[in-house]
Amino acid sequence: YLPDVGAWLRDALADSAPDINRLLRYHMGWEDAEGSPTPSEGGKALRPLLCLTACELAGGDWRRALPAAAALELVHNFSLVHDDIQDRDVTRRGRETLWSVWGVPAALSGGNAMRVIADRTLAKLESSGLPPAAVMRASAELNQRYLEMIEGQYLDMAFEQRERVTVAEYLDMIGRKTGALFESAMFLGALVANEDPGQAHAFGACGRRIGVAFQVRDDYLGVWGDRAKTLKPLTDIQRKKKSLPLVYLLEAGSEEDRAWLQEAHRDDEVSGPNVKRILLLLDRLGARGYVTRTAEACASEAVALAGALGLPADRQRTLEAIAAYCVQRDR
Questions:
Q1: How confident is the chain (331 residues) per 10-residue block, as mean pLDDT?
Q2: Which of 17, 69, 305, 323 could link 51 by a cystine bridge, Cβ 3.0 to 4.6 Å?
Q3: pTM over 0.85
């Protein structure tokens, strides 16, 4: 799948003004800041892979879903550009973020351009033989999940200003911020396969749970992951990120623990000694196991939803392998 997705992405971004195109090619990891080609792993491309896999599992020709797969990756990367600005992150995937090189105004323009190009790319589903009514349904689906993704990002930022966030609130937030686009990926793939909205929604529900499992595992890696593999310069603890381990600490810890954590969060960045103490608190509360079990439970829910699709055994195993990857990955 990946070479074909990459070709669609390059073609989609090529049809933009040279100055904007330069920003987008940098963000995608294809070029350095001077415009020279770079060997880069880029992103995981999991959303387009889910889209194409869903299309094939639903009995379709995955090549027909390539416009949707490319559009999903563009929407995802649009969100990353804006997330980096909002979080003031200066590195992503081991190099400087778009805004930290060209400034916030230019990065905002680049991200917005990528979002528009995503819409234009999705419209090319019609050239794949999808009827206009189905293309409109696909567009409505992507826009609805895109809105949910933005709502999730807003909630994530709002949680940073709150002393207490419950686990239930947090899981709802990541269902929007991450799960929504995973849902759209599998919905769109299945829709392209046979134009059956009911089956597409069933695939989408499975995708949403896979997305939540993926994000919970990301939270695990943000605290306990190998930074040489995750390419994150700071842990989520240092950044005061209310990811699931910290949310669990706030919910399961004592009043004394919560009061101390609030004091430790007064500085812009949590100090080294305080990071060590937070890690000890998390160990005492069994947070590592809790986060792992939560990810596995979400993956199991996805597998159960996949089982209800009535797929042949080999196709069911494919979805099980995807869900397992999301909770076992180390980067």
A1: 94 92 96 90 85 97 98 97 93 92 97 97 95 97 97 94 93 98 98 96 98 97 86 78 95 95 90 94 97 98 94 93 95 86
A2: 69
A3: yes
240 C-beta neighbours (distance < 10 Å), count? 16
Rounded CA separation 245/242 (Å): 8
Q: How far is CA 188 from CA 125, 157, 322, in A?
A: 10, 29, 17
Residues 51-95 pLDDT 10s: 999 999 999 999 999 999 999 999 999 999 999 999 889 999 889
Indicate the DSSP class of residue 42.
-
92 phi and psi, to 5 degrees?
A: -150, 135
Amino acid letter for position 262: Q
Contact (CB, 8 A) for 248 and 290: yes
Q: What is the CATH number of domain 2-328?
A: 1.10.600.10
Spell out the domain ranges in the chain.
2-328
